[in-house]
Structure formats: structure tokens, C-alpha cells
Amino acid sequence: MAEAERAAGSPPGSVQVSVIVPVHNSQCWLDECLKSVWEQDFKQTMELSIFNDASKDGSAEIIAKWKIKLEDAGVPVIVGSNDSAQPRGVGFAKNQAIMQSSGTYLCFLDSFHLLVGTDEVRCKCVISVLERNQAMVTVTFIFVPFDDVMMPQRVRLQYEAAIQHPNSIIGCQVRREPPESTERYTRWINNLTEEQLLTQVFTSHGPTVIMPTWFCSREWFYQVGKFDEGGKGVPEDLLFFYKHLQKGGEVLRVNHCLLLYRYHPQAATHSVLEETIWNHRVKFLEDRVLSSWMSFTIWNAGKQGRKLYRSLSPANREKVTAFCDVDEKKIAKGFYTFEESEERPKPKIPICHFREATPPFIICVKQDLTGGAFETNLNMLNLKEGMDYYHFN
Predict the structure, then answer these.
(1) Strand 320-325's sheet: what is its strand order?
(2) CATH top-level class of 3-275
(3) Alpha helix segments (H runs only) across 225-351
(4) Contact 319/295 with Cβ under 8 angstroms?
(5) Which superkingdom is the protein from (predicted)?
(6) Distance of CA 48 to the CA centre of its chain
(7) How many CA atoms lie within 13 A of 99 on its CB side?
(8) What is the Cα 279 distance to its own chain's centre?
(9) pLDDT (tens digit, 9 = 90+) per residue, 215-233?
(10) Residues 129 and 57: beta-carbon distance below 8 Å
């Protein structure tokens, strides 16, 4: 990275892109994360903004090492820290890293939840942390078990897209390692159409461009509002994504693999309760879709369909005209009784075959899981996604 090349075409003192990196106890993986910043081929001005959220390991020393190396390459590095005994959480750390930065555009790169390296090295690092501080058992495994390493062209290609779409969250395709991990999810991430980036925002997969790939303008970030700082148990990325959409933001994806997204089954799952995310999803569906529908059918008379029905507001439950399914046993029952209702008689919702059902549909069937059978059934109805149906699987 030549300093003269980085500064070409930029006014003195201006920064085009701030790479935002929240850090918490990341010594096992931080080298590779920061190396991927150093390897970027972006020729405009770029800075790295790191916020170290109460790390108790060797993260600070690694940051100091890379600060020298990056600044020698013409990349200013801003480092903030929370020096208290307890971390404030990923939402807080991201907000702090953004506020201390100055770039016109923000490129997110997480180092809050990574486990990198061979099993032997990874285990030694984790054991070392646990031996020093038993309390770290909770903190070390609180976040999603992935790590993020940027491809060299990531900042350049997403910057080129962002300047054309200033009110957008720009994502990218990802490469999984190992390749067979979470195959369905990876296919979903990489293959959604431009329209589906907006129509499939209600599924259990979460944002249609995953947070480690986000790139957006600073101005738009502040228009949407900062990340929720509630800490453990708060799905701050999902809530920000919903606010972004509610304010009319676009969702785009650069169709190049710009992020290595590793999966480590040894690590535990995200600390946010599934029920918390479910409740946010239902509320968002009601606000964005059901509020404008007079009636609809829930596609799935099984567990997930019934759970959605029970979770709806009373006003939206009244709009459900039927459940539909392909399971003959469910259809033979004829109806679903809402036993939890205080109404007398208790509401009974008809169950019919999907070919006899009336759109629009809220679909609670998992995609890419039945060898194409569900997709074939849906396609035969000649419906339009985003108008005649939405996925809520």
C-alpha cells in the first residue's frame, strides 16, 4: 500500500472509508482480522477505527503492533477503549468506533466473536483466557461462532457501490470455511435476488445481507440511528436493519465473494434468546405487511404456523382465514382450535390443502429443505413474492 496511492484524488485531511472494528478478547484471531485491513487494494483514503471493549487478554498489544504497521502504510488508526471491569457489549463498541472515526463511509468488520486458527492453537488461546479469569467463560462464548477476514478488494468494490446508493446497506457474497458448514444458510446469503433482499427480510435467517458484510454512508447511519446498546440479549444488528428498512433504506449486495466467513462448531451460540428474536420478527411482519392486508392464509398447519398465529395481535389473528398444508393428516383434522383464547366458543381456523387456499400467504415452511418439493408446489400457483406471499420460515 503506497501512501501516495491512498491519498490520490482526496482533499487533504479527508477520509473516504472508516473500517469499524469492535474488539473484545480477540487475541487468538485479531492478527488475521487486522491483516486483512492492511491487504486492502483501496486507493482512496481509509482509516481503521478500533474500540477495545474491556479486553483482558493480549488484544491491546496486537492492536498497538498493527497501529504502527498500518500507519506506516498510510492508514491512520484510531483506538478507543472501555477500561472498566466489564464489557459494554457489541452495540456499544460499534457505536464508539463509529463516533471516534471520520470517514464518509463505514465498513464493518467484527472482531468481537471470532475463533481463528487450528483447533490446537484455538483451544490453547481459550484455555489461557479461562485459566486467568473464570468469569471469562460467559464472555468468551457469548457471540456467534464466526470470524471475518476481508478479501483485498472488499473496501474498493463496496465503496464503488455505496457512492451510487447513499441510502443503502451494501453487503457482499461470502465464502464459508469449512465449505460444508451451514450450507443452506450460505446458499441463502449468496443467492437472494435483488428483489428478495427486500422481500425475505422476515425469515429466521435475519438480515438479508449479513452484518459482517455491511458497508454504508456515515450520513445514512446517523439518519437511521445508532446501534442498540442494551448489551447481552439484544439483537442489535437485526434492530438496526429493521430501522433502516422502516426509514426507506435500500438493501444491495455486491455479487463478489469479499469476506471469508469461518464457522466453528466448538463455540456456543448467540446469547440472544430465540424467543426475543421471534417477537421482534412478528412485530416487524405485522407493521410492514399485515397492517395493510385484510385477510391472509398461513402456509403450514404445523408447529411453526400455529406458533405464528398465537403470536399475532388479536386484530391480525382475526385476519387469518385458514391454514394450508400438504400433510393429509393435518388437513383431515379440518381445523385448528385456538385453545389459549379466552373467547367462547374458542376460535377454530380451517385447515385446507394449499391448492384450495386463498392468497396472500405468510409461509412458515423452510426453504431448500425438501428436495425442491415445497418450491415446486409454490411455483405451480404462479404467485408473486412480495405481493401474494412472504416467507416467515
Answers:
(1) 335-337, 348-353, 320-325, 296-299, 361-363, 389-391
(2) alpha beta
(3) 236-246, 274-288, 303-311, 314-317, 328-333
(4) yes
(5) Eukaryota
(6) 22
(7) 12
(8) 17
(9) 999 999 999 999 999 877 8
(10) yes
Which residues, in sequence order, are bridge partners of residue 17? 46, 105
What type of residue sits at position 265?
A: P
Radius of gyration of the chain (CA): 23
The whole-number pLDDT of residue 119 equals 36
Cell numbers at 141, concatenated: 462464548
Instruction: Tell me the per-residue pLDDT of 203-217, one tens digit each, with 9 for 90 and over.
Output: 999 999 999 999 999
What's at 273, amino acid-wise? L
289-391 placed in CATH 3.40.50 = yes
Cis preceding-peptide flag for 345 (omega within 30 of 0)? yes
Amino acid identity for residue 44 in this structure: Q
Asked whether this chain's domains 3-275 and 289-391 adopt the same fold, the reply is no
DSSP state of 346: P
252 three-state secondary structure: strand
Q: CA-CA distance, 391 to 368, in Å (whole number)?
A: 12
Residue 352 contacts by C-beta under 8 Å, 6 or more apart in sequence? 322, 323, 324, 331
Which amino acid belongs to residue 249? G
Spell out the domain ranges in the chain: 3-275, 289-391
- Residue ranges of alpha helices (H) inside 109-265 are 119-132, 136-140, 154-162, 183-191, 196-199, 218-224, 236-246
3-state DSSP assignment of residue 326: coil
With a cut of 50, which residues of the chain have pLDDT below it?
1-12, 113-146, 265-270
Burial 32-65 (b: 16+ CB within 10 A, else e): bbbebbeebebbbbbbbbbbbbbbbbbbbebbee
